[in-house]
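Lab notebook: predicted structure, single chain.

Context: the supervisor wants predicted structures on file for every construct in the current expression panel, including those that have not yet been purified. This is the next one on the list. No modifications to the sequence; it matches the entry in the shared construct table.
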Amino acid sequence: MFEIPSDLNPALVGLAWLRGRWEGTGYRQWPGEEKTSYAIQIDFADNGGDYLHYLSQSFEVDAERRPVKALAMETGFWRPLADGTVDVMMCSPDGFAEIWFGNLQPGRVDLITDAVARTKDAPVAYTAGRRLYGLVEGKLMFSFDRATDEHELQPHVWATLERR
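Prediction complete. Output recorded below exactly as produced.
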């Protein structure tokens, strides 16, 4: 499936399975909105430091599941810690900045928000989240549950991605 590069920072060994580009499709759903499919691309890159750079982009798709319109983008940094946990910082152009923490397991990362900050014109009153990234039969499974001022924590987006 993948090899751990000999020059990889030792702090990143627990996240090595995430490195690279992942592409796939999934679904978005929220109360009052129709369930829709989308395409997603996630990149995890390192530069020798003790963190991964994260970049995620999602797109509305046509009937043939080809990207036709940008939906969302977020970027950030994943920092594995010596105790088997990970700190993640993310932000998006929609006006959200998030601090996540979670546990690392072989081929799995479970994250919950520690803090969500949003600008006064952010399109959603997003207040908390939970994410799961898991390696299943060589594919990256991703889910994001979200809470807002009006809705308790519930599934929002999920996808299956393949390494490219």
